[in-house]
Give the backbone structure.
Amino acid sequence: MLDPIQREAEFPGLSQRSYLNTAAEGIPPLSSLDAFRQYQEDKLLGMDGREHLFQLFNDARSSAANLLSLSAEEISFCSSTSEAYNLLASAVEFPGNSEAVITNLDFPSGATPWLRHPDKPIVQLWEHQNGVLKLDDLNELLNERTRLVQVSLVSFLTGYRIEWEPFRDLVRQLAPSAVLAVDVTQAAGRIELDCLDADCLFASGYKWLLGSHGSCLIAIPKASCHALTVRAGGWYHLANAFDEDRFERAESFPGAAGFAVGMPSFPAIYSLKHGIDFLRSIGVGAIATHADRLVSQLHEGLQSLGVKTMSPHQPENSSGIVSFLSASDAELNAFLRKHKIHVMHQAGRMRVAVHGYNTEEDIAGFLGVLKKFS
């Protein structure tokens, strides 16, 4: 993806280590420091800087829209996926014995708001089988009472990627009233998204999108805009925030704009815009082609060592994450640290995450360490 000179210039710290943990924390390009400097320069202007801050917010919406092939009006930002999902929960009603479907491959931020929802929906759990979410199992959970289906396009736990089209078609057929929400945190910026016809998409900014903490990308296509209106107090997301009737009613903008409930987290949005623009300059397709080849190299090496991964390696289900069961061996962890190899290894699971800035040498070095302990 990057020639050696560009990689050294933008990711100088990666020449001294093999960083295979983007699923936890992404490594921003060094030039992202310019984004923070620009924010500081604009902030030092006081109120005169507000014009620059809000212009950058809108420019970031355009950058994200171009990345996702949507319009800027379909994009907004908040501080985290947890905030986004709790705001989404305020927009979804569960009358009577309505139901919500979640999966046990989901991150808690997408799954738990429905357990705390004041309407107390019946929560149905779509459980994986050996790392795979089977549509036959989902079929039994969907009906006309289903008001929400929440999934992660790529699981943080195993790296399993949902095959979108048949999944979407099944939900639309059997649960026509359901909001289809998808967390693309572990996908956006790493793989080309095929789920842009979901009702809403959320992505943390500090992982594969190469931004900082404090940002979450919101995407709500126009077709779902008026069906998803956040019911929360605030001001920036209100159409009548400063109108004469502002103490009598609060009118949220529909769709994505309703998720920016307060003063935007500008430093994080400056950083996220830079990360998105960096990814766009290379192309997500080029990133996927490069990194998918490394993922195949990793799978082949693990197979040769007799290591079984937690989800199958098939093109339609592959992502940037490969997980497998591994004893929490202190000696192995120490050896990985000694060789400056960064992966996530805890609770009996090892997770390797491969982004566009990784190399064949990163994968070979990791496999070499594992071989010593096989």
